[in-house]
Every structure is written in structure tokens, then in C-alpha cells.
Predict the 3D structure of the following.
Amino acid sequence: MPSLRHEVLRVLFENRPALAAELLDRVFHVSLPAFSTVHVQPSDLTQAVPIEYRADAVVVLQNSTPVLSVIVEIQLRRVATKKWVWPVYAAVERARNRCPVVVLIVAGDESVARWAAQPIALGPPENWFRVLVLGPAGIPPMVQDAEVRRCPELAVLSAIAHGRSNAWGLKRARQIVDALGTLDEEKRALYTDLIVMSLADGVRANLEAMMLHGYEYQTRLPKRISLKA
């Protein structure tokens, strides 16, 4: 069963499908095809075989027809069988939408990232399959207020990856939390909780004291999950 940390990362892509495209552009410098819409489609990648294949999220960039599919996998630890199924995900999605496919792995730590980034041998001669891997080091360590308002999910990713570093000081953390104020109540509550609980202990304590003289978590997640690596 997926962990709550796994589900938190998955829901960021579900809430904002364009996040997958933005990461390909900003982190991996992928030249994206022209597209007008982005949507999440069912992540069931099962064909007429007796084994179920289900990715964490499948994001489709589309004009009148699909132009790129991004299969997102949250990988918090090494699972050897994943190296067998990632090529299957890509092949099935490529046949389903008849467009290029990228498999994007969001790794829980740098060790997992290095493991996931190793090419997968499909067979001779020199037939290799490669995924794109986003580890903590690849996530932008800081985002500007305008970016937080445009893509709050990126701020949450940054907090989870880097919130315990010195770069995430009290002033900056408060600015980012304030920038979430334009979101609807449900997302604002969830994202604020996730950012606050990702901070270094001293910064979090000072921020909690600053916000209404004692911040109260607005969702049940903080009582049930640790986002620390």
C-alpha cells in the first residue's frame, strides 16, 4: 500500500497536471511540443494480459490530439521489479495515445534517484530504455512569490526537498505561506500544512508562533505523516 508521503507527492501532480510539463521544461530542458491543454487521464496501463499495470499519474499534453504523454512515478525506495514495468508503461501509453512518451520518476532521495536513472537494457543490440529522474537536488531550492502564486505545487515540492536547509529561513517561509492565500480553502489548508511541517524545527516553531500566535494545522495529515527524508 502506498505511504502517505507517496500520496502527498502524487496528489500534487493530480491537482496540477501542468506541473509535469513545467518540470520537464525547467529542470530537464526538454523541448516541449506546442500544446493547448493538459489533463490527467486514467492511470490504468493494463493491456489484455493477466497482470495489472497502474502508474501513479499519467499527464497528457494535447492540441486537437495528444502530443506528449508524461507518466509520473513516485519512487521513495528501490523496487527491483519497477525496472521491468517502466518500459511497459511507456509502450502501452505510446500505443494508447499514439504520441511520444516520457516516464518521469520523482525519487525520495538521491540514492534512489541514482538507481532509477540507470539505463534499462531491453535486449541486444544496444537496446536501452531511459527514464527522467527528479531527485531532491533537481527540485528548485527556492521559488519566487510570483511562481508560488502561479504554481503552488512547486513550492510544496521545494519545501519537502529543501525546507530543512538554511535557505528556507523564517522570513522566506512566511512569504511563501502568505502567497498561498489566493488558493481555494481546501488546497490552501493542505499546502500550508505540508510546507510548515517540512521546515527545520526552529524555523517551524518561529513560524507557528508568528502566525496567529500559534499555528494550528488545518488538515489531519500532520498527525499521520512524516515528510522528512
